[in-house]
Specification:
The chain has six helices and nine strands, in the order αβββββαβααβββαα. The protein starts with a helix and ends with a helix. It is α+β, with helices and mostly antiparallel strands. The protein has helices at residues 2-17, 66-71, 88-101, 105-125, 160-171, 178-184; strands at 19-21, 24-26, 29-32, 35-47, 50-59, 76-82, 133-139, 143-148, 151-157. Helix 3 packs antiparallel against helix 4 (105-125) and helix 3 crosses helix 5.
């Protein structure tokens, strides 16, 4: 009986550990290749009054320091659960705007070919429907993968620097949404 009670308590705690943002359940852990990543933080991306997506950041270990996260190696994942339908044009423009806002022209020149590859993959995806989960995943040795509902799209994009550039969209000095940045850093 005692074992059953302990098992039930552990199961309840595990369910309670999963976050919920704007009605979207966010897993507290995900697997990326052979690595287990923990939820660092999650929040709602709004544009004007529209709910756009729930963004979640997964890391090998929690950190509230954006600079440390951007400089650290290892696997990482950003997931975006869409709260509305988005076109390929909206996806690519948002990616381009976020990267451009956080990099100099010289830095953009170094990233340009890989950014074009990511944008081409987004265009191939076409429109993404409400409820879809777009993932941006980085695995050392593999590169950056774009996924839709867990299915990889396009070829991996090389370079840890490229993934750090993508992370700056949310964690950079000029994040797409300052409230979302705080949430992804696990800050109230």
């Amino acid at each position: 009986m005692r074992v059953l009670l302990v098992a039930l308590c552990l199961a309840w705690l595990q369910l309670a550990a999963a976050a919920e943002v704007a009605g979207v359940r966010i897993e507290d852990k995900v697997r990326l290749g052979g690595s287990e990543l923990v939820l660092n933080g999650a929040g709602l991306r709004k544009r004007i009054v529209f709910k756009v997506y729930v963004g979640a950041l997964y890391l090998p270990e929690k950190s509230g320091d954006a600079a440390k996260i951007l400089a650290s190696g290892g696997p990482k994942r950003v997931s975006m659960t869409l709260m509305r339908d988005l076109t390929a044009k909206q996806l690519t423009e948002a990616l381009e705007d976020g990267v451009r806002a956080n990099h100099t022209e010289a830095q953009l020149a170094v990233l340009r070919a890989r950014l074009d590859t990511a944008e081409a993959t987004m265009r191939e995806i076409g429109s993404a429907k409400e409820g879809s989960v777009i993932g941006l995943e980085y695995a050392p040795g593999t590169g950056t993968r774009i996924t839709v509902d867990g299915t990889p799209k396009g070829a991996p994009i090389a370079g840890e620097d490229f993934y750090a550039a993508l992370l700056r969209v949310w964690l950079g000095d000029k994040p797409v949404d300052a409230t979302l940045k705080k949430a992804m850093l696990g800050q109230p």
